[in-house]
Here is the input.
Amino acid sequence: MGTAENEIVIDNLTKKFEDVIAVNELSLSVLKGELFGLLGPNGAGKTTTINVLCGLLQPTSGSVTVGGYDVSKEPKKVKKLIGVCPQDTAVFPYLTGRENVEFFGNLYAMPKETLERNVNALLERMGLTEDADRRVGKYSGGMRRRVNLVMALVHDPVIAFLDEPTVAMDPQSRRAVWDFIKGLNNKTIILTTHYMEEAEELCDRVGIIDYGKLIALGAPDQLKEKFGAENLEEVFIELTGRRIREGA
Amino acid sequence: MNTQRILSFAKKDLKLLIREPASLFLIVLFPVILTLVFGVAFGAIGGDQSASYQVGVVNMDKGLYQWSQTFVETLTTTEILNIQVYADTESAQKDLNQGKLQAVIVIPELFGESCNSFFTAPDDPSSWLEATVELYLDSGSLFATQAIPPLIQQMLVMTISGDQPSPSIPVHLGIPSLMEAERLTMFDYMAPGIFAFAAIFLIMTVSQSFTVDRERGLLRRINTTPATSAEFMVGHAVSNMAAAVVQVALVFVMAFLVGFSTRAGAAQILFAFVIVTAFALCCVGFGLITASVSKSPGAATGISFIFIMPQMFLGTFVSAGFSSTAQAAGRVVPSYYVTDALTSLLLRGAPVTSPTVLLDLAVVVVCSVVVLVLGVLLFEKYGNA
Here is the structure.
């Protein structure tokens, strides 16, 4: 079991794909109830780290503990605790928005009444109630991403992994998702993003990784102060030497 | 295993079948249209085919035995008929009902005396002793019902009147089942194969469903939930078996609408649902194998034909016109046993307890279990990521 304060503990994690080292001796902890931002450019190892945390990938070395359970040894227990919003929108286009969310709620064996209540509440908060009974295949890209996020949270998980939940969203939708994430109380969240303003707005602490290595860790204000920067993007550029831009 | 999860997977898959036009067409509309088209096209058309037929002979002749012996020898000389002698009518009928024979000839007690009455007074019909050779035909074989009676008649005339055939002889050919068989159309003979034919396309829809879900990242996403592989697979099996039941029901309705004649009762029809549903599991297994080796939905469509084509050509109504070698090769595909069982049940009127039908079901169930387990194992190892 992990310590009481640390909900997620990554200890010296390395993940290799043949000759490529995606995550390189990464160690960090996320406190219970904390919203932690995992930042980095494309290919930095953010998604690989999330995939190891949710049990989709086995570590090459090192260990990962989520909710007090070793992910490699007790994946079933971990899966009951977590909700995962994948980077690429993974929805059934032939189901309605409501059906997609209900389907994932049923996979967590939620009681019918609780499921119905959660589905309605989450769809309402994401502004999807009016379109809830339309097939997702007819949704705009932004609406699909919002459904994608709701599907991860319908069972009210204590730990959520949100992998770039606002990528390719218009500013209005992104702001709506930020407000939604801010309202997620009592959850431990790891949010990956390469939007620095998103991390500044939402995260209690951030870890910046590049080439699979952790290169900075701390609260956004602490990092800005440490590097004498006006914003987090400047910190990142200072550390990685490359501009963060979508699709880079 | 959690029922809520299984039902959730099954409901999701059924919605896919209903809502995706391509799936709806393959699973529901295609068999209906196929039945309609074949029903209309072949509903009143017969066929002709030269082949060899298994014929059982029961010799009840008690009198001048050499006549019936000559008749059997004459029958044996034809290459078209493979004669098998039976001690009693019951065992011959049993083999006929199970499709092992295409016809049974029952030579009556007075056969020899009747032949002799002709031989002694060929020009005096009033002195002839009449007798009837009963001929029972396999009503599940169109070609047998059409080809065998004239052949037997010819052999009978040759036996009695020798090289100079007489237009009239005292021994007649009685065909109690022929009246019924004559009413059957080409479509009636095809219909049992159409049930299996329709289910075969589940291979394609299952493989596409899995590969599309994998491509969309949905399988990975499901892997992050507490749902187990067993629940996932059982959910798929349940939905596809339900689809197969709907297919069978639709094909039955459509077949009856276009005039399908069957000797089946409620038990046989229920059995038809059971065996096609079991076969659906086999198709799910083939679909999983296809999905395991396919990198994309497009590839899955192509590769699925590796399993679809042999099942279709060797095991359904399509094979009816093939050579005996090709028909024998059909025994390696599960669809053959579905068609064979349905032919026995629906056309021959075989009971559900018939050994042939039960053996067919056993083969289909064993094949389904083996293919499904293989499919699940392959998909777990290579296809689920």
In short: The CA atoms of residues 176 and 216 of chain A lie 28 Å apart. Chain A touches chain B through 25 residues (CB under 8 Å). Chain A has a mean pLDDT of 89.
